[in-house]
Amino acid sequence: MGRAREASAHRLAAILGITRDRITVSADPTRTEGGRAWTRLTVTDHGVYAFIAADNDPARLLCLGPCPQCGNHVPLTALRHLADLGDLLEHRARQRNAVTLPLAQELVADPAHRSRCPFHRD
Ligand SMILES: [Zn+2]
Asked: How far is the CA of 21 from the centre of ligand 1 (A)?
């Protein structure tokens, strides 16, 4: 699992065009799959940006951001290219407008939604 976490960190660094040492790797406190915590990746650079590797898959990096319904931080959109992060930042800047982001499938039923959120599942 350490290797999967490290691979996720390297992929994130490559996408963002930063060095690996700028990324903090940890176990996600909220999301698990089969008893294993997903990988949380945090970048601090003019603000804090948090990402997770769904099911610890380096090919499935997701941006954490505020849920369009309840506002809690959930996996909002997939990060495949630097442009995906640009879209997320633009989305955040005009929060009140309709959601234009392609939402990640992992957003649905994420454990971080508030209980009254339409995306919440028991
Ligand atoms: Zn929600």
From this structure: 32
SS3 24: strand
How many C-beta atoms surround the C-beta of residue 84 within 10 A? Answer: 17
Question: With bands split at pLDDT 50, 70 and 90, how would you rate the model's confidence at 47?
Answer: confident
Q: Which residues pair with 109 in a beta bridge?
A: none
Q: What residues are paired with 64 via a beta bridge? A: 75
Q: CB within 5 A of ion ligand 1: which residues?
A: 67, 69-70, 113, 117, 119
Residue 86's φ and ψ, nearest 5 degrees, are -60, -45
Contact indicator for 95, 82 with CB cutoff of 8 Å: no
pLDDT tens digits for 49-101? 999 999 999 999 999 988 989 999 999 999 999 999 888 888 777 765 556 78
Cα 20 to averaged position of ligand 1 atoms, centre (Å) = 31
Span from the CA of 90 to the centroid of ligand 1 (angstroms): 19
What pLDDT band is residue 118 in, cutting at 50, 70 and 90? very high
